[in-house]
Amino acid sequence: MLITLPQIRLEGRSLQETILKTIGLGKSFKGFSAVTDVNLDVTRGTIHALIGPNGAGKTTCFNLLTKFLEPTSGQILFNGFDITNEAPAQIARRGVIRSFQISAVFPHLTVLENVRVALQRGLGTEFHFWKSGESLNVLNDRAIELLHEVGLESFAHEETLNLAYGRKRALEIATTLAMEPELMLLDEPTQGMGHEDVERVTELIDRVARGRTILMVEHNMKVVSSIADRITVLQRGSVLAEGSYHEVSTNPLVVEAYMGSHGGEAL
Fold it and tell me: What is the number of structural domains in the chain?
């Protein structure tokens, strides 16, 4: 089903301003409402952050958007098409590609080989198990380009298990980019990182976002304040506030949610 969304002009091309939209999105588990009436609008070409105290429903929202969970109510629109009833693989083929909180790379493959695996989908040979690994050498140039984009070109032939944690997350971003996403969903991209790695990955996300659209769940407010164009704040599964970092960080309801009785987290 195609639903008409607002249009804007960008560099002479007509584009839909809203790339992803949810209408009344909800999810209940045996009577418990984990997500309630979430209306989300993600604008093409921006970094949109989804934040909130622990237990606010952020990751549940991501699971709904990528259909790892089935919504109890509401609609999900991508590029104007209703994708609410589509399978995860269909949504990925549309260009909605997601990373996960837990590192998801092949530890005993090299960094280059990890990216080639992600690129292999474009060859249509994912299940050609009888073919030699050398058949993937045609992907090397593109794989090196992606590694250069995320700052890992010099680690191309390093076994992935030897990478520092922050570089493993950078590799995940490279494999996500290999899927040619129209919309990248990053789930807690800096979780568990030290200060130096957080800065490196934040700069990386900002760099790869140019010309792309990113929706990310992120707990580190320094990261959010430095790169997010728009922020949606969830509390108890519902939208509490939305706007720029300045707007949401000075909203009394948001301050109360973070500093009051919901874990004492700093905003």
Answer: 1
